[in-house]
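Sample 3 of the quickstart, ligand manganese (II) ion:
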Amino acid sequence: MTHAAQIIPSGQALGAEIRNLDLRNLSDSEFDSIHDAWLNHLVVLLRAQQLTDEDLIRFSRRLGNLDWAPVQETGRRFVEGHPEIYVVSNVIENGVPIGSLGAGEAVWHTDMSYLETPPKASLLYALEVPRAGGNTYFCNMYLAYEHLPASLKRRASGLQVKHDGTYNSGGYVRQGLTAVNDPVTSPGAYHPLVVTHPETGRRALYLGRRRNAYLGGLSLVESEALLDELWSYATRDEIVWHNEWQAGDVVLWDNRCTMHRRDPFDPQSRRILHRTQVQGGIPPRP
Ligand code: OGA
Ligand code: MN
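Result:
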């Protein structure tokens, strides 16, 4: 028992580090301890991992079937032979970015919620990171919901919100789509604004992305005002935890009850992360 997993909560509104585990070699009970920590803390960090793409995919599959990666901004679909791997990188090779999201800010979002059935989990594995910048922030959407005044909770609970499908979090227009800046007509998927997490039974606010979001059935003016009010609860410092990346970090988060954003970083530096996304985040009715 010298190598028992150690779970170290961040002490903040979400996030825990798990020490003493090698993701290449996990017993079922070690996997269960990661799974429990992930449900309890919403985001877990494991440092100093040494994974090939196959290792990352094998571990990710223990959480569920994997979605294929979204098409990259260059139109390239995926890493050759590994359609499950989404490359997040600013590195340019032969004039072409090897991944998505560039070196700018990635604004608050939850992954792929423009789909009818978004992924329940995402995993990022850091291969190369800059000395500074490019931190990733996560917020606790259970608390965002719980902090709403009762009247706002009531108003939100019957509504559906459209999650825009045209822009990614880096502000790039998705492949094959034209930029539409009218929230009422832009393509996307409607989801309940308040969801009940199927595994924890807790309610969460499900906002996805601010840009082009639209509350079905309301006038655009009403929709914008209510969304602005809800968003003001969602990203307050007191419900946020962030990771300052080291190469070898794996961060696993729950897309059903968190959002995330990324700081910009020096475009001259190199940042390469590989992501997988686990199916099954159907937002259930409240
Ligand atoms: C993602 C993402 C942020 C980052 O991979 O889903 O939003 O830290 N990445 O690069
Ligand atoms: Mn993301």
